[in-house]
Amino acid sequence: MDFDSSHYLLQCSLCGAEYAAEPLRLECDMLHAPALLKTVYRKPRLEINRAFSGIFQFSDWLPIARVLEVSGQPITYHSVPLGDYLGLPHLYVVFNGYWPQREAGLMTGSFKELEAPCVLARVPESYGKTLVIASAGNTGRAFATLCSKLQIPLCLVIPEQSLSSIWSTEPFHPCIKLIVVQDGDYTDAIALASQISQRDGFFPGGGAANVARRDGMGLTVVDATLTLGQIPHHYVQAVGSGSGGIAAWEANRRLIGDGRFGPHRMQVHLAQNVPFTPMVDAWKAGMDQIDIGSEAIAKARIGQTAAMVLTNRNPAYAIAGGVYDALVDTGGHMYAVTNNAARQAQHLFESLEGMDICPASGVATAALIQAVTMNRIAKDDVVLLNITSGGIRQIQQDYHLHEMEPTLAVSRHTPLSAILKALA
Ligand SMILES: *Cc1c(COP(=O)(O)O)cnc(C)c1O
Ligand SMILES: [Zn+2]
């Protein structure tokens, strides 16, 4: 179903220039430092649209040109066992994944399933070009599953080590083309996807610059605030590109504008996985730019992290309206979490709460433990812990999973012309 897109505008977070809702605009036209565009919705007050399914019930606050048939939403619950353990009586978990007892049904098991439908729905059905997405795993699984179900063409580029994370509870449709970069990491996959997306017949997902991606992820905070009836004081998440952290901050502003949920600015607590912590390092050094250092060192560090989804080498940190600005604006903090601490936190969550969570969610949980230990969170504060992915082991037990065969395996040196030829 097509949808009237006049319900929102795009606004540059640096110069304030405004643009009408265009499905593919990713940046401001003015010549200035890099800056994110943000959405401004006509309706300051959110109305739930029960005629639509899943996250499209929040269509008032999504930059979309159509509505898709999807199910699955984030769910927010009062986390009593973990809250007791941490001495936080007002700890809430927003859980993104599969947990049948709590009616959590994101069947690809992560909050990338909030991003994918919005990015797809931002382009009208008649657009006729193929979306190109790079992924370290969860994004790819979400897009491949959704595009397969809705039969929307997709070109997905992943590093070879992520191949095992492209699975689905349903068989994949041949409209999904999967390219595996054999000797590359996530950033190499991003570079190849970017090249393909500039060619005829393709268009880019846009990463953190795509407002649809961020407003989809921001639904975690919208869902939590509607459930609690108030904006939380603290928000805790593990970050790689930073999109989810920025999205939470943006959703917070929108919720303040709604007027029903209080004027709080949530303090954002964002975490990365040691030894690959470029945003933590920059923030702790008081820098508004990140320094990745040599490619070889970055790659060696990435190879040692448990939470591969957090290893983006080009995060939206320094860009205006990005992670640095969110941290400054909210008095936020960043945390470095070791593999060991993440693993222990994963076990702690599972033993107390009763559902498996992925390493990135372990990183977030461990960061919450650090924040409490450092007295950054007062006992009576309302805390929102984003479990960005959980229940994957449970899905594997409950379903037969289909894996995806690569359409094409390439090296970092394969000429683009050969890749395009093979795709055609
Ligand atoms: C992508 C991802 C993250 C990090 O998301 P950002 O884009 O950096 O906000 C965290 N956890 C999981 C499970 C993810 O898939
Ligand atoms: Zn601008």
Outline the secondary-structure elements.
Blueprint (H helix, E strand, L loop, with lengths): L7 E5 L5 E3 L16 E5 L33 E4 L1 H7 L4 E9 L4 E2 L6 H10 L8 E5 L3 H13 L3 E6 L7 E2 L7 E6 L4 H12 L4 E3 L6 H7 L1 H10 L5 E5 L4 H16 L8 E7 L4 H7 L10 H8 L20 H8 L2 E5 L1 H15 L5 H15 L9 E8 L1 H7 L3 E2 L4 E3 L5 H8 L1
Parallel strand pairs: 5-15, 7-8, 7-11, 8-10, 10-17, 12-13, 12-15, 13-14
Antiparallel strand pairs: 1-2, 1-3, 4-5, 5-6, 9-16
Helix pairs in contact: 2-3, 2-5, 5-7, 6-7, 11-12
This protein binds pyridoxal-5'-phosphate and zinc ion (ZN).
The site of pyridoxal-5'-phosphate has 17 residues, from α7 and β15.
How would you sum up this structure, described in words?
By secondary structure, the protein is α/β, with parallel strands linked by helices. 34% of the residues lie in helices and 19% in strands. The protein contains 14 helices and 17 strands. The protein has helices at residues 80-86, 112-121, 138-150, 186-197, 211-217, 219-228, 243-258, 278-284, 295-302, 323-330, 339-353, 359-373, 392-398, 416-423, and strands spanning 8-12, 18-20, 37-41, 75-78, 91-99, 104-105, 130-134, 154-159, 167-168, 176-181, 202-204, 234-238, 267-273, 333-337, 383-390, 402-403, 408-410. Strands 4, 5, 6, 12, 13, 14 and 15 form a seven-stranded mixed beta sheet that branches. Strands 11-7-8-10-17 form a five-stranded parallel beta sheet, sandwiched between helices. It has a three-stranded antiparallel beta sheet with strand order 2-1-3, with no helix packed on it. Helix 5 packs across helix 7 (243-258). It is globular, with a radius of gyration of 20 Å. The mean pLDDT is 95. Bound molecules: pyridoxal-5'-phosphate and zinc ion (ZN). Residues 12, 14-15, 17, 28, 30, 32, 35 line the site of zinc ion.
